[in-house]
Each structure stands twice: as structure tokens, then as C-alpha cells.
Amino acid sequence: MRQPVILYFVNGPVVTNEEKLAAYQIRATVKFRNALAVTEESSCLEKCDGVAGCVPNKYKGQPSVEEAMDNFNLEMQGKIKSVSEKPKDTGNLDGWAPN
Predict the structure, then answer these.
(1) Residue 49 contacts by C-beta under 8 Å, 6 or more apart in sequence?
(2) Neighbours of 18 (CB within 10 A)
(3) How many angstroms separate the CA atoms of 19 and 53, rounded?
């Protein structure tokens, strides 16, 4: 299972130490993006699981970091539950022999 991808938007091309520290606290794959480079005329959104930082208007509808992590945790709990379920009865195995 892959980790969530978070786009962390900064105001300009340079990431500050404070922004690096904040991103380090996020338990996910964090990709820094220049918020000033995203315009209303931009034709498409970069695929991500959540956004953080100085989020441009074009990305305002995307989940926050908290929502993305909650979704990831729920998905992981579902996978853990399905793996830990008891196997289905396969019936009578009489006559079974290894190859």
C-alpha cells in the first residue's frame, strides 16, 4: 500500500526551514509546489491525496492533510481486517496429495 501523496504549496520557488519542518511532521509523501505558479488558467490539477501550506484557489476542493490521513487510515484498517479474517471453509480435502 502506498503512502498518501501531499502537495505542500509554498509562496515562491524557495522552501523555508519552517515549511520544511512542517512538512517533515506529515507522515506521508510530501511534494513541494510553488503556489504562485498555479494560475486559474492552469488546465489540470496534479493528482494528490491532500494539500497543505498556501493552497491556491484551484486546489481548495482537495482534501486537507488531516482528511487524507484519515482516509488512508480507514483504508488500511479495511485491508488489515480483510487479511485477518478467517479463511473460508474449503470443504473436504480427502484425497489431496502434494505434487
Answers:
(1) 4, 5, 6, 28, 63, 68, 71, 72
(2) 8
(3) 8
Q: Looking up cell 485477518, which residue turns up?
A: 84
Backbone phi and psi for residue 56, each to the nearest 5 degrees, phi listed first: -70, 155
The pLDDT value given to residue 64 = 97
**27/66 Cα distance (integer angstroms):** 10
Q: Which amino acid is at 79?
A: K
Residue 58, judged by CB atoms within 10 A of its CB (0-12, 13-18, 19+), counts as middle
pTM surpassing 0.70? yes
Location of C-alpha cell 510553488: 34
Residue 26 has pLDDT above 70, yes or no: yes
